[in-house]
Structures are given as C-alpha cells and as structure tokens.
Design brief:
By secondary structure, this protein is α/β, with parallel strands linked by helices. Helix content is about 30%, strand content about 20%. Bound molecules: uridine 5'-triphosphate. Uridine 5'-triphosphate binds next to helix 4.
C-alpha cells in the first residue's frame, strides 16, 4: 500500500516559547514570509502525500483556519486590484485533503501519534512534526526518499537523521546505527533519547520525519510515560527495534537542514536565514545586518 497519509502533530504547548505561545500556536510563527506549518505542508505535498491529519490542541484553531479556502480574501484582492497577491494564496488550492483531531491531553509526542490510530487504520503513514522546517527554498525531498526506502526494503519504520554537533546531542533522539557501510541509508540497532555527548552512540539526530506501519500503535500503547510524564515516540521505536522490527535511518542532505522552531535561539536563527534568502528583501536585510554588526563592533 503506498504511503499517502501524513500525521502532523501540532498539539504541544510550546512552553519554551512562552509568552508567544500563550494564544498563538508555535507552528503558526512566521519564518520569513510564511508560518512554519505551511512549509511542512508544502514539503509533504512535494513528496507525494495526499491526506494530512493534524493532531491539534485547544489553542491551535488558527492552523485549521489557515488552510481553509478564504473566498472573502480572494474576492477582496480581486476587487481592489491586488491580483498579484493571489499567488501568495496558491497553497490553498494544493491537491490535499485536510483532517483534524484533538489530542485532549498533552501527554507527549508518542501520545499525539497514538491519537491518529483509528484514522490511520491499516495504512502505512508518515509523521512530520509541525514545528520543524526542512531546508530553505522549498527543496527538501527526504520524505520521498524515505517512502522509497520503506517500500523497497519492506521496513517497519524509516526515520530521517541529520548530523548534529556533539554538544547538541542532549536535545534530540540519537541513532545507534547497526552498520554504517552505507551512510545514507542504515539499519538501526537502537535510538537513544537526548543522550549527553559522552553517552551519544553517534551524532545522527532525529530530523522530525518518520514513516511507520500501523504496528507502531501497539508499541505506543505499551509505552509507559517517561520524562515529564509524557509518552515518548522514541521509547516506542526502541521497543519496535528490540522486538526485531526493521527500522532504517535515512540521512537528510545538507540542503535539507532541519530548522527547529521549538526554542527562541533556533527560531531567531531560522528567521534570519529565511529573511536573508528572500528573493525580494534578502539583500536589504543583509545590508541592514551588516550595518548593525558594524555598529556593534565599533561600540566594543
Ligand atoms: P515538542 O517536543 O517541542 O514539545 O513538540 P512541546 O510541548 O510542543 O514544546 P515545549 O517542550 O513545551 O516547549 C514537538 C512537536 O510535537 C507536537 C508539538 O506540537 C510539536 O509540533 N506535540 C508535542 C504534540 O502534538 N503533542 C504533545 O503532547 C507534545
């Protein structure tokens, strides 16, 4: 069965971005010209996914509104002679079906994925975290490669990984590859959640994209709440590997670099990179930044 369904968890509270996330979903934060989740949806569309199930929460209604057709705005732009702006709304017409369900208690990413169980049924499916952009300039196609590997190898799960600096391993799930003879696609012996640099089995960090068979739900159901009383997706993947499941890693390419919008430091960095890459305003932003850095330098 081909992979056509993607689950996009967007229900997390985003406490690391308080006060921004008090009423605004972090997945709706602007990065350059678009909200984070629009990049995610466009990436999945590019990779051949057709149905998107969002796992949402109480403060996330803005996401549903965003992907609706806004006929009133379209008419307004036409009537006021701003047709050129209609291009900015082209994403509304993408050949995608949107579905939404609520995670009624924020019990972690693993629990959010479990909320998709009855919708998923017997299909394999992708998971893409709604707060993470892959690549600048809309080029990332790692999910497409993951689906290919998943189908060709008959895997139980395929996970995207990106090389991370050793001092950053404590932020992510880290791969313990069973064999790295092919560094682009490799079997996993284990996956370790947020290890210290000393304990990290590699520098390959989970890059927020996954492909699963529905069998993962059985492992999620058996997963006990871990850190912060949350059900961790990594724990269920560990259990799947321990039970003999075939779990493969696929490495993201350098141009598919992960932008994590979950904390201020990486959010600010992502915004700057996207602003600098903007085809219309990149150059003026660059000039402004140079001037600011120059001023800062001369004040020291
Ligand atoms: P995070 O791990 O960043 O958790 O979520 P969080 O709760 O949103 O953020 P903090 O730690 O409070 O700052 C990664 C992705 O998983 C979703 C989030 O919306 C985000 O897209 N998620 C997380 C859920 O859908 N439900 C959860 O219970 C937790």
């Amino acid at each position: 069965m081909p992979v056509k369904l993607a689950v996009i968890p967007v229900a997390g509270r985003g406490t690391r971005l308080v006060p921004l996330t008090k009423s605004l979903p972090k997945e709706m934060l602007p990065v350059g010209r678009k909200p984070v989740v629009q990049y995610v949806v466009e990436e999945l569309n590019r990779c051949g996914l057709e149905r998107l199930l969002f796992i949402t929460g109480p403060t996330k209604a803005a996401i549903e509104n965003y992907f609706d057709l806004d006929v009133e705005l379209v008419n307004h732009l036409r009537e006021t002679g701003k047709e050129e702006l209609l291009l900015e709304l082209a994403f509304e017409k993408a050949d995608l079906q949107y579905f939404y369900t609520r995670q009624r208690r924020q019990l972690g990413l693993g629990h959010a994925v479990l909320c998709a169980e009855s919708f998923v049924g017997k299909e394999p499916f992708a998971v893409a975290l709604g707060d993470t952009i892959l690549g600048i300039n809309e080029k990332a196609r790692v999910v497409e490669r993951m689906i290919q590997v998943f189908e060709e190898c008959g895997a139980d799960a395929v996970i995207a990984f990106e090389e991370t600096p050793l001092e950053e391993t404590f932020r992510y799930g880290i791969a313990a590859p069973a064999d790295l003879s092919n560094p682009e696609v490799f079997p996993l012996a284990d996956i370790v959640e947020k290890p210290s640099p000393k304990e990290a089995p590699s520098q390959l960090a989970v890059a927020s994209r996954y492909i699963f068979r529905p069998g993962i739900f059985e492992f999620l159901k058996k997963t006990k709440p871990g850190k912060n009383d949350e059900i961790q997706l990594t724990d269920a993947i560990q259990a799947l590997i321990a039970a003999g499941g075939k779990v493969l890693g696929v490495k993201v390419a350098p141009h598919e670099h992960r932008f994590d919008i979950g904390n201020f430091e990486s959010y600010f960095g992502a915004f700057l990179e996207f602003a600098l890459a903007d085809p219309d305003f990149g150059d003026s932003v660059r000039e402004k930044m140079r001037a600011l850095l120059h001023e800062e330098g001369s004040c020291r």
